[in-house]
Amino acid sequence: MAVSPISVLPDxxxxxxxxxxxxxxxxxxxxxxxLWKSLIxxxxxxxxxxxxxxxxxxxxxxxxxxxxxxxxxxxxxxxPLVPNVEEDVDVDVDVDVDGADSGEGEGEGEGEGxxxxxxxEDDDEEDEEVLRWKALIKLSNLERKEEQLKKxxxxxxxxxxxxxxxxAKLDIFLxxxxxxxxxxxxxxxxxxxxxxxxxxxxxxxxxxxxMEDRLMCLKIFIKFYLRAISISMFSLVxxxxxxxxxD
Length: 247
Hints:
This protein has helices spanning 11-19, 36-40, 43-73, 116-150, 160-188, 198-246. It is an all-alpha fold. The chain contains six helices and no strands. The longest helix is centred in the last third of the chain and has 49 residues, at 198-246. α3 packs antiparallel against α6 and α5 packs antiparallel against α6 (198-246). The chain has one domain (41-246). The chain is elongated. InterPro entries: F-box-like_dom_sf (IPR036047), F-box_dom (IPR001810). This is F-box-like protein. Residues 3-54 form the F-box domain. Residues 96-125 are annotated as: Disordered.
């Protein structure tokens, strides 16, 4: 029985092949090499793979934003207030985007009992918009932190801090994508003439789902890498611990 050429390729060539694989599903790497999990531990491979994935996310996000703007142009509504946020807001790497302020605009409409339901809906829309803006601001700060890390020495290999920052950025991308999805679904319920938006809506739905799936997949991919290098570091340190305990 002939031996598959893939099984005899050197690791360096395998890593180069894997770094050029264009797939939205990272598990497809198994089709290239049965030992793909061991190659994930290679920092250079991870660097190439993540940078290419983020570039793909940027391209896809521009398309989603275009469809989203076109979708909103068909909807007449009162735009929510945009919070005044200073540019120099600092955030920790452990990003928490669930704490959005929802207090703005609550004072409007007091004393008008007939409009209570409308006021509640406006508040919900404002909360979602505030959440989106805060997420984008935190994304900008994380990108600034990442640039600062790149300026340091010995950045040929990706360290854990850089990977954690990129995971936080993926979380924020998810917040923005889910905001768009929520906005779209909420207003779709109130539309009378849906035929106007059918084509645009389907394109937006498919691309947002693709974006969300890819983000979740890459996030799991990075978690596996961080867990793998942590186990590797523990296996290197454990013999030293055993030696000291033996003394």
